[in-house]
Amino acid sequence: MNAEVSRQSWDDGDTLAVQTAGAEEVSGDLDEAVAIFVGARPRLMAIAYRWLASTSEAEDVVQETWLRWQKTDRTVVADPQALLATMATRLAINVSQSARWRRETSMSASAPEGADAGDDPATRVETHEAVEQAVLIVMESLTPRERAAFILREAFDYPYGQISEFLHLGAANSRQLVSRARRHIAADRRTVVPSASYQNFLRAFLSAAQAGDLAGFEELLAADLAG
User: Fold this and answer.
1) What is the DSSP track for 186-198?
2) Residue 4 included in any domain
3) Could you tell me which residues come within 8 angstroms of residue 222 by beta carbon, excluding any fewer than 6 positions away?
4) What is the DSSP code string of 206-223?
5) Is 30 among the domain residues?
6) What does the CA dihedral 163, 166, 167, 173 come to, rounded to 10 degrees?
7) b/e for 73-82, b at 16 or more Cβ within 10 A?
8) Per-residue pLDDT averaged across 155-165, rounded?
9) How many domains does the chain fold into?
């Protein structure tokens, strides 16, 4: 069967490329995939925007999430909403490789144009969920040393010299460590992290991002390194 590409219009005027095989036996599955994605799309857009602070870049992330969702074996997906959120978060992290990480993961990050994050409980919940998901991905994807270098650089804009002092590495090695961390996040290879460790890390990260408690966060990172 020859595949063809059609354009599916969404309520907000955006368009997404929908690959269809034209066969009746796959139409039902595709319709269900579209329905799930349309339902998740506002949340995915919010997640991507939290990281990128750009509507156009967030839309690109959502588009790429849709393309990957089409290629996913959905018969083995237990929680489509969670999977889509993870896809969007990982893609947004990959796009965002800059020191904006702290601003975009802060609970006070601005909402998309026309929205007031401070007055919208749903937006605040989405923001918190995006932060939780992002921190989990970082913890599951990186070693303690990679995690420390990546977060200190991307979330808190530490100079490489300061990261080197913290990790007892040369500046060039610190740069390589951050670069390696980015590749490992993009590779989507994850290990299970104990819930207690994740919750402790998340609390320390939020305290550092919101209240400026970098000393406490550094202590946690140092304990992980010594661990």
Assistant:
1) HHT------HHHH
2) no
3) 166
4) HHHHHH--HHHHHHHHHH
5) yes
6) 30
7) eeeeeeebee
8) 89
9) 2
